[in-house]
Design a protein that fits this description.
By secondary structure, this protein is an alpha/beta fold. Helices cover 44% and strands 17% of the residues.
Length: 249
């Protein structure tokens, strides 16, 4: 069943062609900075806030960060979990992800099974997502998730994982280059995947400029995620990226 937050995302895609989500790493923000960032994100035109990172943070801190943000914005807050410990009762929804190119079954199905009781107990809306890591083994996401990353120059591999995600019933497919990386997923890979699947394509990692965001949106991404941009740049920089996505789509 499609829930309220997922329907909100779908409606945003239908209206704008593509939307932007902001990813905040709870390890890098305090309660006070989270509140101020939430206000800036709200004003930027970003459609929702994702909370999650590659390394472990106490769930108490995550709860505090989300609680502080929700006092400053009405945007949905979606958990982007790295493990069971990342599940917060303060969020609205959770991207219920399977790291499809992990070499460890824990990140494909086992962590999800362990986290399911918490998702139900907290009343979080689960949004099924297939998730793959693209690029180099040296990224934090690849290291933590024990993934065998899809090479940048092999878009056909990203396509078949996307097809598998769709056939397995996932409702979104995420290509992740990794937080803070220098090289984002190429527009050529995005175009190939968007032609091969019928579910919304999400792309994140290494997207820091309106030009790159625009290229990825034009290639077929329906959701574009940035994180480092809001942590290190100005609110105006984030607004420019959001505007470029909507104009391109």
């Amino acid at each position: 069943m499609v829930g309220r937050v997922e329907q909100y995302l779908i409606e945003g895609i239908r209206k704008h062609g593509a939307i932007h989500l902001t990813l905040l790493d709870p390890e890098k923000v305090t309660r006070s900075t989270a509140a101020s960032l939430a206000r800036a994100i709200d004003k930027s035109g970003s459609s929702a806030i994702m909370v999650g990172g590659s390394t472990a943070v106490s769930v108490h801190h995550i709860d505090e960060v989300i609680s502080a943000m929700k006092k400053r914005t009405n945007l949905p807050v979606i958990i982007f979990p790295n493990d069971v410990a990342g599940v917060s009762k303060e969020a609205d929804a959770i991207f219920f992800m399977s790291l499809m190119n992990s070499m460890n079954p824990y990140y494909i199905t086992h962590a999800q099974a362990l986290g399911s009781p918490l998702v139900k107990r907290y009343g979080l809306e689960p949004i099924p997502m297939g998730y793959v890591i693209v690029g180099d083994r040296g990224s934090a996401a690849a290291f933590v998730g024990q993934a065998n990353p899809i090479p940048f120059e092999k878009p056909s591999l990203a396509v078949i994982y996307g097809m598998a995600a769709q056939f397995m019933g996932k409702r979104f497919y995420y290509l992740e280059a990794g937080s803070g990386v220098e090289r984002p997923v190429s527009s050529e890979m995005v175009a190939a995947v968007s032609k091969g699947i019928e579910i919304p394509l999400v792309v994140g990692g290494g997207i820091r400029s309106p030009t790159v965001a625009r290229q990825i949106a034009k290639a077929g991404a329906r959701i574009i995620v940035t994180g480092t941009l809001v942590e290190k740049a100005s609110p105006e920089a984030l607004r420019r990226v959001v505007r470029s996505i909507r104009k391109a789509a």
